[in-house]
Amino acid sequence: MPPNARELDFTRAMARVPGPVVVTTTVDAAGRRWGFTASSFVSLSLAPPLVTVSLDKKASTHAAFTTADFFMVNVLAHDQSDIARRFATSGVDRFAAGDTVTLERGLPGIPEAVVRLACRMHDVVDGGDHSILIGRVLDCVTSVDREALVYVDRAFVRPAGSVPAVARAH
Ligand SMILES: Cc1cc2nc3c(=O)[nH]c(=O)nc-3n(C[C@H](O)[C@H](O)[C@H](O)COP(=O)(O)O)c2cc1C
Question: Could you tell me where the DSSP H helices lie in the chain?
């Protein structure tokens, strides 16, 4: 069914809001790797350390992630938009390019990602047409010298790291 006017207003509004670009991965009991691109990644709690990623219930990866015990969030770097596109493409082998390797907790990780978070599945919560994957962070790997990719206005952009910040939060 095509989106109605209210849904179009909502998606138009949310497209204006910058978000991170992550590739969320897991591996099932048969050793098959699964992954999808998401901009719905959010930090949820510090104690315990929890993050969320929302996954469309119609996605081909939905069953694999909602039954997984562990998953990994790979926060993509500014020069990894090709990886973002591939992990959002239906009907292709998203792992064929070989840019993921087995990393923390045996999960498929992207070595050049800005941040990798290996998570144990804490809960899966209903979120309308999406399922909210809540992960408890077990391992954090952080790169300090790479800028994260940003998705805004339906485009991938690089943060203007050399421009002075408007204001510091602290
Ligand atoms: C920048 C970007 C962000 C996305 N964010 C999400 C997201 O947060 N949650 C989600 O379920 N799908 C998201 N998608 C779509 C998925 O990556 C994927 O295309 C969709 O799940 C269809 O995949 P399927 O062929 O496995 O069904 C996003 C796609 C792009 C390009």
Answer: 5-15, 62-66, 81-86
Number of domains in the chain: 1
What CATH number does the domain containing 105 carry? 2.30.110.10
Q: Does 167 map to a domain? A: no
What residues are in contact with ligand 1 under a 6 Å CB criterion?
A: 21, 36-40, 54-56, 59-61, 84, 88, 90, 151
In this prediction, residue 162 carries a pLDDT of 60
Structural domain that includes position 63? 19-154
- Cα-atom radius of gyration of the chain, to the nearest Å? 16
Distance, in Å, from the CA atom of 69 to the CA atom of 65, rounded to the nearest integer, reads 8
pLDDT in tens, 85-117: 999 999 999 999 999 999 999 999 999 999 999
